Amino acid sequence: MSTTSNASELEGYLGLHAAKRVLRGIFARKDSVHAVMFYGEEGSGKSGLSNLLARFWLCLEPGPEGPCGACKACAAQERGSNPDLLRIRPVGSSAWIRLHKIHPVNPMPEDEEPTVPIQEFLRTMPLRSKHKVVVMEQAHRMTADASHALLKSLEEPETYAKFVLTTDQISQVRPTIRSRCLLVPCELPDEREWLERNALAEDWELRLAARSPGRLQMIRENPEPFAEIYRIASELPSLPPGAALAVSDRFKRAVEQVQKHDESSVRSAGTLALRILGTALRSIGYSPAATQAVSAAHTRIQGNAQGGYAYDALFVRLLADNRGRAG
Ligand SMILES: [Zn+2]
Q1: End-to-end alpha carbon distance in the chain
Q2: Could you give the maximum distance between any two Cα atoms of the chain, in Å?
Q3: What is the pLDDT of residues 28-38, one digit of tens each?
C-alpha cells in the first residue's frame, strides 16, 4: 500500500468507524496518548491500522492526514529497516510472548526470532525518527511476568516512547495493561458495507470470511485449502461415522497447505483451519454441539495436543452425531 496518500489509506479501510475517528484525532494532535490498543475480531484491520499509527509516530513531518511518506523515517520504514521500530509477536512452539522480549534476562533463552528486549530498545533516543515505537501483536499472549515488566514501561514511558498493541482477545489481556492503553475497537464491517464491497465474491468465500476483510484476503491468496475445508463442512451432514478418519486426513492435508503457504507453525495453521471449519459449520446451520466440539479441539491444539489425534477425535465426534440423523 502506498504511503503517499494517507487520507485515502485510512479511509480505504472497510467499516472501522470508531477506530478511524480515534486515528483522525491522534493525527490532528487532539489526543496526546503514548499507548494504543487495537482490539477486535481477526481480520478486521487491526494490523493495518497499527502499522499506520506506528508510521505516524515515527514520521518526522506528520500531518493531519497521517505520516508524510517522504521523510527519512518514512523512507526507512518503507524499506522495512527503521531502527526506531520494534515489533514483538508471539513466536515459537509456545506462541507466548515471554519475559525476555520485554526485559533482559540472563542468560537470554534461545529464540527463533532474536530481538532486543523492549526496555533495552527504549533506553536510547530515536536515531532517525520522531519517536521510538513498539508494536506488539497478540498482546494477550504475554505471560504474567512479561505483562508485569511491560507495565513498568507503560507507566513511566520516556517522552519519545510510543506503544501500539493489538489483540483479538482483549478479555485475556491483563486489566492493568488495558487500563494504561487507549482502547480502540476494531469491529467488522456491517452487512451492507460488506456486500457492497464484495459484490463479486463467491458464496463460499463470503461464508468463510464471515465479514472479515482480512480473512477474505487470506482466503483469496491461498484458496485451495479453504475451499477444501468448506467442502468438508458441506459434506459432513451426509457422511457415515465410518468416514471419520478419511475426513480427518483430508483436513490434515488442508492444514499442511495452510502451513506451507503461511510458513507458520503446525499449531497456528491448525487453529486457523479449525476457526474456518467452525465458521463453515455455522454458516451451513450445522448443530451448535458440532461447533462447540470444534472450539474444544481448537483449545486443545492451542494448548499442547498432538494435532493428529485431536483432529481424528474431532471428526469421530462430529460424525458420531450422524448415526441418529441417518436412522
Ligand atoms: Zn514522514
Answers
A1: 55
A2: 71
A3: 986 679 999 99
What's the residue count for the chain?
A: 327
Q: 80 C-alpha vs ligand 1 centroid, how far in Å? A: 14
Specify the pLDDT at position 3.
43
In the reported structure, the alpha carbon of residue 44 is separated from the centroid of ligand 1 by a whole-number distance in angstroms of: 26
CA of 64 to the centre of ligand 1 (A): 12
The span from the CA of 95 to the CA of 262, in Å, is 15
Q: How far is CA 189 from CA 17, 108, 121, 327, in A?
A: 9, 43, 36, 42
CA of 129 to the centre of ligand 1 (A): 8
How many angstroms separate the alpha carbon of residue 305 from the centre of ligand 1? 46
CA of 56 from ligand 1 middle (Å) equals 7
Please say whether the beta carbons of 284 and 276 come within 8 A: no
Distance between CA atoms of 86 and 164, rounded to whole angstroms?
10
Instruction: Give the distance (Å) from ligand 1 centre to CA of residue 97.
Output: 30
- Ligand 1 centroid from CA 96, angstroms: 33
How confident is the model over 125-136, as pLDDT tens digits?
999 999 999 999
Positive or negative: CA dihedral 237, 243, 246, 252: positive
The pTM assigned to this predicted structure is 0.81
CB 53 within 8 A of CB 180: no
- Ligand 1 centroid to Cα of residue 156, in Å, is 27
Half-sphere exposure of 42 (CA within 13 A, CB side): 12
pLDDT tier for residue 101 given thresholds of 50, 70 and 90: very high
